[in-house]
Design a protein that fits this description.
Its main location: cytoplasm. By secondary structure, the chain is α+β, with helices and mostly antiparallel strands. The protein is built from 9 helices and 12 strands. Strands 4-3-5-2-1-12 form a 6-stranded mixed sheet. Strands 9-10-8-11 form a 4-stranded antiparallel sheet. Strands 6-7 form a two-stranded antiparallel ribbon. Bound molecules: (R)-mevalonate.
Length: about 350
């Protein structure tokens, strides 16, 4: 058996705009998906996922992932998660040049599905890493990221950036702009996450932004303005990169990062990807004194990310109607982790 885990992430800035070539800065957090893979001596694939839905599910099929029956669990999200697992299986078969390889796969995840914390990227990254290693091929984290991007892109019908998968594969805070993906040196950030218990459909949300952008020039400008926010924010996070923030106190820089996150949330809201519960968690965090707060990921429901070194935001979120869970998230400095 081969076991790998990969972290989820929050976006400090830039989701959605990154799909159109603007930069984004996601940051890996210590909430992981763990995938265990055992090679079979036939071409069947059996997937057991105890945490990916309320009841968990098991599905088994022979040969091509195209022949997989629909998973018999009443949640479109589970079907979507299986899409990522199928795509990871195909990538591993291709990487190891083993088109007929069969696997027993177990997925365990601490990351809620479709909630903006990068569950699909984490499952895809850990799945490709474990399955390729099980077949005797070891890829670099960058090669895993590239294959995971191709897998995610196939599931999202070409509407994906490299941000989620690169961040999950390499860990830390990263900057992604088109094909240019790299780690950046970010300070220790006081990240708080609020989760409304819901989820959004990434494909639909991305298509909604595309439709707005094609219809209105000002929506296209909004996407570009998000890019400007990212370019300003990244200089605050890593002032040594170009000396622009040299001499500015670290606490002041984190406070300004928060201001930019507020700005970024407003623009995402105007692009139609926020929701009532995301907005009320964002406002609860701001009123509790957070430096800033915004939705994270595709939106539509799911999670917000706030910056607050004090316990106030965490406490306020726990009393906010519509917030199901709130927690402090540690930066995950490791990306894909090889456990067995
Ligand atoms: C989803 O986590 C982030 C989006 O920007 C889509 C993507 O980058 O693939 C909405």
């Amino acid at each position: 058996m081969t076991v790998s885990s990969a972290p989820g992430k929050v976006y400090l800035f830039g989701e959605h705009a990154v799909v159109y070539g603007e930069p984004a800065v996601p940051c890996a957090i210590e909430r992981r998906a763990t995938v265990s893979v055992t090679a079979r001596d036939d071409d069947h694939v059996r997937v057991e996922a105890s945490d990916l839905s309320l009841d968990g599910f098991t599905v088994e099929y022979a040969g091509s992932t195209d022949d997989r029956p629909d998973v018999d669990v009443p949640a479109g999200l589970v079907e979507a998660a299986m899409g990522y697992i199928d795509a990871a299986v195909e990538q591993a078969r291709d990487a190891a040049d083993a088109p007929g390889a069969g696997f027993d796969i177990t997925v365990e995840s601490e990351i809620p599905l479709g909630a903006g914390l990068g569950s699909s990227a984490a499952v895809t990254v850990a799945g490709i890493d474990a399955a390729t290693r099980e077949l005797g091929t070891t890829l670099s984290p960058e090669a895993i990221a590239d294959r995971a991007y191709r897998a995610e892109s196939a599931v999202q019908k070409g509407e994906a950036s490299r941000a989620d998968t690169f961040c999950s594969a390499v860990g830390g805070a990263v900057r992604v702009e088109g094909d240019d993906c790299r780690r950046i040196d970010a300070p220790d950030l006081p990240i708080v996450v609020g989760f409304d218990g819901g989820a959004g459909d990434t494909g639909e949300l991305v298509s909604g932004v595309r439709a707005l952008k094609e219809r209105y020039g000002f929506a296209a400008d909004t996407v570009e303005t998000i890019g400007d926010i990212v370019r300003t924010g990244e200089r605050l996070l890593d002032p040594d990169a170009d000396d622009s923030g040299a001499g500015v106190d670290a606490a002041d820089r984190i406070a300004e990062v928060g201001d930019l996150m507020n700005f970024n949330h407003g623009l995402l809201e105007s692009l139609g990807v926020s929701s009532r519960s995301l907005d009320s968690m964002v406002w609860a965090a701001r009123e509790a004194g957070a430096h800033g707060a915004k939705l994270t990921g595709a939106g539509g429901g799911g999670c917000i990310v706030a910056l607050d070194p004090t316990p106030e935001t965490l406490t306020a979120l726990r009393f906010t109607p519509g917030c199901e869970e709130a927690f402090r998230a540690e930066l995950a400095t490791d990306g894909v982790r090889r456990l067995e």
